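hey can u check if this looks right to u? its 122 residues, i copy pasted from the old doc so theres a chance i mangled smth
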Amino acid sequence: MGPRKSKNRDKIVCARSLARLVNKMTERLTELWRGIARAWRGRYVRMLEDEVARLRGDNRALTNSLLGTAGFPPLVLGDGVDAERKTSEPVVRRRSWPQIAMMREREATRQAAVREAHTRHN
């Protein structure tokens, strides 16, 4: 083997070892990137799930508020805090101020009718 073939052979060996090194570095960087992406995706998904839970609670509160204003009992759904409350204590139906005013007006009208009927008989 001449000096020229030896140099070519050394270049080929050097190129192969460099290619192996680049492949190993690429694999390590890929694994590192995948780990970062996995961690980020986990945090991001957790953040989205927390936001969805918060929005569901807000929607439930708004819906129950509207139902209460209309005179209907609140919805009791089977997830989260409502499920625990459902088994341990009864749901207290809260009235809105317009509902309270209507109830007072009806009661006053009823009492006035009773008084009027009582005065007629006497």
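The first helix runs from residue 3 to 70.
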